[in-house]
Amino acid sequence: MSLYYHTGNTEGGIVSKITRKGQITIPENIRESFGLLPGCDVEFIVEKGKVVIRREVKSGKLDKWQGVIDLEAEVDEFVESLRSAKSKGKKRA
Q1: Pseudo-torsion of CA 73, 79, 83, 88, nearest 10°?
Q2: What angle do CA 26, 31, 36 make, to 5 degrees?
Q3: Residues 64, 45, 4, 36, CA torsion sign
Q4: SS (H, E, C) the chain
Q5: Does position 54 have pLDDT exceeding 80, yes or no?
Q6: pLDDT exceeds 50 at position 7
Q7: CATH 2.10.260.10 spans which residues of the chain?
Q8: What CATH class is the domain 2-55?
Q9: Has residue 2 got a pLDDT over 60?
Q10: What count of other Cβ atoms lies within 10 Å of the Cβ of residue 70?
Q11: pLDDT of residue 11
């Protein structure tokens, strides 16, 4: 889910002031609706004249390795070769 702030008419919207330090308070009902908890990272994206505030979703532990290994075999075959090498006491590549 994303939060949208627009520079147009604020009628019916929620307004919050930016402090001298550039900080802004996100209203409680919006924080609760979008799961924005203390310590939560948010991402600011500028698109088509809008600022989008999005809760940053942490990637899984293995996501950073996606696409790193170029397998010539199917995944199941590769995993089996790792298991076989481990059972024989060999080091993995």
Answers
A1: 20
A2: 105
A3: positive
A4: CEEEECCCCCCCCCCCCECCCCCECCCHHHHHHHCCCCCCCEEEEEECCEEEEEECCCCCCCHHHCCCCCCCCCHHHHHHHHHHHHHCCCCCC
A5: yes
A6: no
A7: 2-55
A8: mainly beta
A9: no
A10: 5
A11: 58
What burial letters (b/e) apply to 2-33, b meaning 16+ CB within 10 Å? ebeeeeeeeeeeeeeeeeeeeeeeeeeeebee
Residue 46 binned pLDDT confidence (cut-offs 50, 70, 90): very high
Q: Do the strands 2-5 and 50-55 form a parallel or antiparallel pair, or are they unpaired? A: antiparallel
Q: Which amino acid is at 11?
A: E
Give the residues across from 45 on adjacent strands. 52
Give the amino acid at 26: I
This prediction has a pTM of 0.47
d(CA 44, CA 53): 5
